[in-house]
Amino acid sequence: MASRKKYYAVLRGRKPGVYTEWSGSGGAQEQVMGFPGARYKGFESIEDARLFMNGKAEPLKKSSASGSVRNFHGGGDMTVDFDAWPVRVYSDGGAIGNPGPGGYGTVVIRKDGSREEYSQGFLLTTNNRMELLGAIVGLEAVRDEEVAVLVTSDSRYLVHGIEKGWAKGWRARGWKKSDGSPALNPDLWARLLSLLDGRKVQFQWVKGHSGHEENERCDALAQAAARGDAHIPDQGYKG
């Protein structure tokens, strides 16, 4: 068994430096999550972590499973630590006219380098419903509920709904907002929260149309689905 990486070098983040803990208060995760252009990497030795901080890190090692470990990027040039997040889900969605014909696009990338893409078009739906459904489809594709997943999206509605606890609050109040008005899209929020229960999943926001490779790919998939001919009804849309 490979030894667990114990040092996390944060080159770009809220507080750059070498950390011995990933999660928890003051850990490396707190320095990079949501930080635009964050860059970090995990190492087995503090010497390698310091080399990375000084711009002298060695090339990525070969992987027997996939030939080589790809260096994926998020949030501009954020290097993904696949020990912390063995699965990455990228998603996007939209509707032409909002409401109107819509679609979602989803990319799932695993630590072994494998890649899956999903998309679907709908007859009549909304931007937010497609944003939600894109993330749902990605998480449903990850059958191992023990694996940690990082979901990246350009939808503040999706990311803040989970990370700020809005959706859980709506559910606790019978799908009503704090002012008593109905929360929108309760069917999809309920489905998403059910997928998250008992799992290690974090959501990260990135700016749309900013050159983020996987976000741009998801956008292309969603656009093609929305403008294509293979539309199905969005049974949960109550327009």
From TrEMBL:
Catalytic EC class: hydrolase
Binding-site positions, Mg(2+) 1: 92, 131, 154
Reactions catalysed according to its record: Endonucleolytic cleavage to 5'-phosphomonoester
Cofactor binding note of this UniProt entry: Binds 1 Mg(2+) ion per subunit. May bind a second metal ion at a regulatory site, or after substrate binding.
Gene3D superfamilies, alphabetized: Ribonuclease H-like superfamily/Ribonuclease H, Ribonuclease H1, N-terminal domain
Major place of residence: cytoplasm
Annotated binding of Mg(2+) 2, by residue: 92, 219
Localization in the cell: Cytoplasm
Superkingdom of this protein's organism: Bacteria
Cofactor: Mg(2+)
Domain (RNase H type-1) ranges: 83-227
Gene Ontology MF terms: RNA-DNA hybrid ribonuclease activity
UniProt entry tagged with the keyword Metal-binding: yes
Family classification: Belongs to the RNase H family.
Protein role: Endonuclease that specifically degrades the RNA of RNA-DNA hybrids.
Subunit structure, interactors included: Monomer.
HAMAP family xref list: RNase_H (MF_00042)
Protein known as: Ribonuclease H
Source species: Desulfobotulus pelophilus
The gene coding this protein: rnhA
